[in-house]
Amino acid sequence: MLFNSYEFIFVFWPISFIVYFLLNRLCPPVFGKLWLAAASLFFYSYWSIKSLPLILASIAFNYVMGRSISHSADKPIRLRKLLLTLGITGNVLLLGYYKYADFFITNINSLFASHINLLELALPLGISFFTFTQIAYLVDAYRGKAKEYSIVSYVLFVTFYPHLIAGPILHHKEMMPQFDRPRSKVIIPGNVARGFFVFCVGLFKKVVIADTLAPIATQGFDVSTHLGFVEAWITSLAYTFQLYFDFSGYSDMAIGIALLFNIKLPINFNSPYKAVSIKDFWSRWHMTLSRFLKDYIYIPLGGNRKGKFRTYFNLVATFLIGGFWHGAGWTFIMWGLMHGVAQVIQRLWQKTGVALPRWCGWLITFLFINFTWVFFRATSWDDALKVLRGMISIGEIHVSLTLAGQVLLILAAFALAMFARNSMELKLKFKPNLRYAAFIAGLFVFSILYFNQVSEFLYFTF
Asked: Which pLDDT score, from 0 to 100, does residue 172 have?
């Protein structure tokens, strides 16, 4: 079930909302949690009922491991580390089997001329996100940062449907106390108004902006066999802005939906294309993933505590893992490697003491981001090289009315990303009055008019 679908907006969301607050008013608190957990599992299995046993097994395994780790606080450290290692290994093996098995088999066949059959497994929806969420829970339990909750509370923490499919990646301690607050169990009109406002902003980003740019990127990456200079830049920039408005649109919609239930999800985007350095970019883009990579990979590897060389190694390793997490392909690994190396280069540059003008830092960062997204989007090396060759083919400049129209669309997307207030800034300025009501209605109706095809979110496949 998509957030940008009639069945979600006009059926599932209203029913889950109304029943949740009726149960909170008429029954003990556990019934509201139980309903929301059940609704979230229905939301998940609506895509494929075959995936339901998998997520339930993952939840059961991690709940048992989390309790075991929490109850071993007074046990020898070796036992606690063993339990944590077993828990993380179980999650990694599950993710690896479904997401990376065919990648490894393909490469083994290529290296050794073998003929191992591919498993051709369907990737369970959201497996990368609910796996990372639960790994974070196990580590927090080991560190004594995750309070023990009932199985119903834990199921709700993992499956809460606004974040289940594509994040944000959550921490147990920042989520579960919110469900237990007495104030959260009643409808708060201000939260309803703000939540629907943010949802509509995200919906507009997705169906009006991202989905309009999608065919341009698809034509260049997947259909065209050759791209001239203008076509290649249009292709790369179309995807750069499609990805931003698609994923930030999803995150806005998730934040908006959760706010109706009086739950505040963490911010995932903060105008990332305004970044003036690669470090600045990763403090603004997919912020909960950046937090996860830092807290659960970079710091455990040693962070910056073991000398310069080890710091640089840890940075590159962290981003390689982040790249591979996004997808089972060498193009994703290359994307992660380039971002890791860029982090190292920035640190080395800072040691020179030479400060670039902000506009120059922004330009270098934006061009680098646009360049690396080519590898992120391409389904093969050939497709990536096709686009990159076109981007430097200055002698092949062709202009047409179609290309001119595409340029105008990209310029409009650029202007919105660079100069308009982002959704969280708009939320801070929001006031429930007639002017905002008219604005919300306009966004909503205009977006609904674009519901002419099923359009999944890009991060559903990662």
From this structure: 81
Catalytic residue selected from 163, 172, 286, 326: 326
DSSP 185: G
Phi, psi (rounded to 5 degrees) for 268: -110, -15
Task: Check whether residue 227 and residue 138 sit in a common domain.
Answer: no
Domain that holds residue 81: 6-186
pLDDT tens string 127-179: 888 999 999 999 999 988 877 678 998 999 999 999 988 778 888 888 888 88
261-279 per-position pLDDT tens digit:
999 999 999 999 999 999 9
Share of the chain above pLDDT 70, in %: 99
Residues 116, 249 within the same domain? no
- The upper half-sphere exposure of residue 412, i.e. CA atoms within 13 Å in the direction of its Cβ, equals 12
Tokens 């009086």 belong to residue: 262
> How far apart, in Å, are the Cα atoms of 222 and each of 234, 331, 379, 386, 401?
14, 15, 8, 10, 22
**Residues 202-215: what's their mean pLDDT?**
94
Q: Would you call 339 a catalytic residue per the annotation?
A: no
Domain check: are 165 and 258 in the same one?
no
Note the pTM of the prediction, 2 decimals. 0.92
CA–CA distance, 266 with 285 (Å, rounded to integer): 13
d(CA 168, CA 286): 8
Q: Is 31 helix (H, G, I), strand (E, B) or coil?
A: helix
Flag whether 226 is in a domain. Answer: yes
Domain count, the chain: 2
Kindly state whether residues 11 and 80 are assigned to the same domain: yes
Which string of DSSP letters, residue by residue, matches 264-309? Answer: -PPP--S-GGG-SSHHHHHTTSSHHHHHHHIIIIIHHHTTTSS-HH
